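DATA SHEET
Item: assembly model
Revision: 1
Owner: S.N.
Input lines:
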Amino acid sequence: MEKKGVILILIFLMALALPLHAGLTLNATADREEPEGRKVILTAGEIEQAFRYDVYKKNTHDEDWVFILGLTHLDKPLIMDIENDTPVQFRIVAVDRNEQTIDEVITDPVVTKAMWFNTKRIVRFISMILVSGIILFYIRKARKMQSIYLRPIAGLNAFEEAVGRATEMGKSVLYVPGIMDLDQVETISGVIILGHVAKMTARYEASLNVPVSRSLVMEAAREIVNESYLSEGRPDLFNPDMVHYYTDDQFAFAAAVDGIMLREKPAAVFLQGKFYAESLILAETGNSIGAIQIAGTGSPSQIPFFVTACDYTLIGEEFFAASAYLGQDPKLLGSIKGQDIVKGAIMVTILLGVIFESLGFSFFKAIFNL
Amino acid sequence: MFLKRQVPLAIVFIVGVIMLLSWFIPHEPFANLEIHATQWFDIIASFAMILGALNLLKLQGRKVIRRQKGWIYSLAAVLGFFVTLTFGFFFKGGYYLEVKDVGVNTEAFYQTVSEVTHTELDVVRRSFADVGEGKVINRNYYTHAGVLKLQNTLSSLGTVVEVNELQWGQHLQERGTFYSWIFYSIFTPLTSTMFALLAFFVASASYRAFKIRNTEATILLAAGIIIMIGRVPLGAYLTSWLPSWLQWLHLPRLQEWIYQYPNAAGARAIMIGIGLGIVGTSLRVILGIEKSFMGEK
Amino acid sequence: MSKFNSILQKLDSLDRRIIFLIIGLVVLLPLLIPLNLPVEATGLTRDAFEAIHHLPDDATVLMSFEYGPSTKPEIHPMAVSVLRHFMSRGYKVVIMCLWPDGLFMAREAIDEVLRDEKFSNLVYGVDYVNLGYRPGNEAVIKGITKSFAANYTVDSRQTDIMDIPLMNDVRTVADVDFIFSLSAGYPGAIEWVLYASDPLQIPVSSGNASIQVNQLLPYVKSGQMQGVIAGMPGAAEYEALMEEYGLWPTRGQAAKSMDAQSIAHLVIVLFIILGNISYFAKRKSQKKY
């Protein structure tokens, strides 16, 4: 009888204890879908008596818990940020209205790791490989090909004509390689084209004026112009002050270049690089002095202004292809051909996408959402 | 030759490939490479500015000394450079008062502060109701003499105030310093004026260029006119009388359609071409096929 | 008739200074004698407005200033309107600048909005904060996707970011509910889409100079951006929407300037028509000979 009584009492106590522990739970799992790691998903079970749940975390080797936040409900999973490769524990404390602790749970240590490859960018990676592969294939093929046909671009054919005009008139050639720094690909293209123009001015003995907006561009442009004059066998005509710096500020630079145009009245103006709102100011001023203007930019919003105000404009891709056109190096021409093949592939892809979407098949679009 | 040719090409290739791959590898050390590289570039470009500044001073200074054509503009450039440098590094201004105790003449104090800071009296009363360990009067003075004048006025009312000066760096951001005076009084009107020139140049360029030479030019002209008029309230006003079945001719609606469909399609096509051009150029540079940026053939 | 024809032909080479003078006058006169033309909001602006208006009541928004004095006439009115909208809705506002000039613009916008007594109870550091300018362009955006504190140790008043109550709940840009970029170039809205909004799926909208909107339309059409406020017309439309929703009763600066822009656009169109008449007159006489 006594034994039965003890057993009954024990069962009764266990039954009392069960509801206290059955509700409050805490699970911490590392988010394996997150490429950068650092994310832990906390899921917790509520208990009825709790007024608030305080969440803490600590690195396993630390002693003190750090309070993160207090919540009144635990209905949604919590996403926590932690450092990768560091074991972290989480603790949840249920408190009542009198700030008394009802229960607490501590998780096992959890570690997050970053992936070695971001699987969310797989489509972009494959596209990069394909595009690069096609361009490289045509670069290699170009060496064996006798000639590669590229459609004539009026603006590029006019380069030599513009420099010749300046020589005949005894005036200078003004070249502006954009207003941005060397971290922009358009600036690099502008500076490369400057090299070709410098060869022409060396050959024709026209004076060259290159105002720049960035110090690094000044140094790179100076080096290129120097090499161009050397390669033409006219180092005597090169003067480091041909390439000179004015200011980083967009409109102050535009004012400076306008001043050069109005005072020195160059016969040929080249605007090749990255431009913003000052493009029309430069182009219109050049137009007002009667100079022949050839512009080229990768800024889509400035192209209409150049088309309106300049004699020739290299639009978009033509600007990036200019160095290949002017240099006539087979490898460069091959890369242009490769670009054209990629462009054709993109056009086909867009067309297929339009057809599939119009017919109600969204699988094609979904491939590119990966 | 090896240092001038092979080493730069190797650096460009290695760094280019690493940066390209780091976008796909979220694991350290690749994860933050892009951020670090961008910051390194900013630091290098900032120091390189010294080269540009010296070049500017050399050329413009030479023009002034030799009294060459247009030397007066060069003088303006050189003077502007040194004045801004002085106010940026040597004379900052930016003196202000911190109120420790308002004193007994509270209304007179509030009135004075309201006048100097151009703030409503109620707002000043609320702000200075409890100064705690110190409350700043929201007005900076260019000179010490200027702030002393206010200090004397407030002290005569029994207010306890302390004169402080803006920290270096803060003086570039706050009003009441010589640097901010240059920014608001000289730089801002000048850049606004240059930008405003665009309005005039757009008019003269449009007048000269929008000619009906062929079919494409005609379509361009019509689209341009619809967008120009439809974009402004005048367009809505001129076509507000249209009945509901002709609402598609309502100029703002027409211009929005042209803007969002044919225009956006054209812009996308050009952007795709530019994107490809950037890819091609970057590949050529990284792989060393394009060497002319180094001065090589 | 032949005299009329020769006048028409001479117009083809009209001195540009006459054009400048006429444009100057037609811009000046409506500013002095307002026409109060009604402003009608277009789809792009309305989308941006609705996206902001329907954020949760306890939303935290990030507002980035990337413009300077040159584009201030176009972008500043929309900056003031949007900031006013945020504050009217009771959102917490975190302000930052990726352009050095943006800091001055931000300060002016804050001062202008807070002049309204309606916002006199807003507390700096609790309801809004101005983190100021940091160099680095898109590196700053990438940095704040990981940690604000690592990039902004102090705010624009040199207060430690750890001592700012609002920033306790905003550790990274993922903690904000909406990003609004006021941009006039690079870095700007596109960088916010590429490095913050798209990877972290935070809705973004922007206010830009008219000229840049072309580049942003593909992002708007693809759903990566929630509308865009395009230049001064867009700013005027936003002000009209603020009035429509009862958030701001008076005609704003952009709406007042639209009278001048309307007449200027009309005059430019008339110039174009005149230019074409002259062109045809010249062509006709050349064909004759």
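QC remark: Chain A touches chain C at residues 81, 180, 250-251, 276-277, 288, 300-301 (CB under 8 Å).
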